[in-house]
User: What shape does this take?
Amino acid sequence: MPRARRIGVFGGAFDPPHLAHRALLETALQELKLDTLHVVPTGDAWHKPRQLLDAARRLAMVQLAFGDIPKICVDSREITRAGPSYTIDTLRQIVAEEPGAELFLIMGADQAAALTSWHEWQAIVQLAIINVATRAHSSNTTDLFEAERLFPERFLHLGLPALHVSATQIRSNIANGQPVQTLVSEPVARYIADHHLYQSH
Ligand code: ATP
Assistant: This one.
């Protein structure tokens, strides 16, 4: 019997995509031995309190940030789908496209801590193994997450060191005229500068 295909899914606002996202993708590809890893920019992010940059420009930056990594599939389905971007809908579509595949959902500890507030979260945990990366400053680096306490066999932790990078910090640096070269890849830095993005709070 051939082994089941191993499909990773990594969603986010990517406003903008940064070097910690890239390190997380590379770690997940390697540790989980994935055949494909879908990077899925969110459309209407129901759980983000602020207005995101328009989806077309976030998608363009995701392509610049990660498009060169083998096995990465930049996946625009949540941007083109009407209504809120629910992860469960994305996972169900991928399962339908890849019958018999094993799904691995990848996220930082901040998202894992909030997982029980996600739409149909228990169905998410049944469909995909949840792979968590430590997040610098997260209060949840050692405690089990609520969802993990309930379904411990469905959780894995990725061996990524805590990286002090966030999109919030990058937007703030740009608005304050501070450099971002160590936080985003060079093509993303150039795109941000060329399009005058994030210049005001
Ligand atoms: P913001 O600061 O605007 O909230 P962000 O830096 O958290 O953005 P997102 O696009 O919201 O970036 O994150 C996408 C995914 O990447 C989430 O699962 C998030 O937890 C994870 N992530 C982002 N930055 C890191 C990091 N430094 N370490 C580990 N995981 C991260």
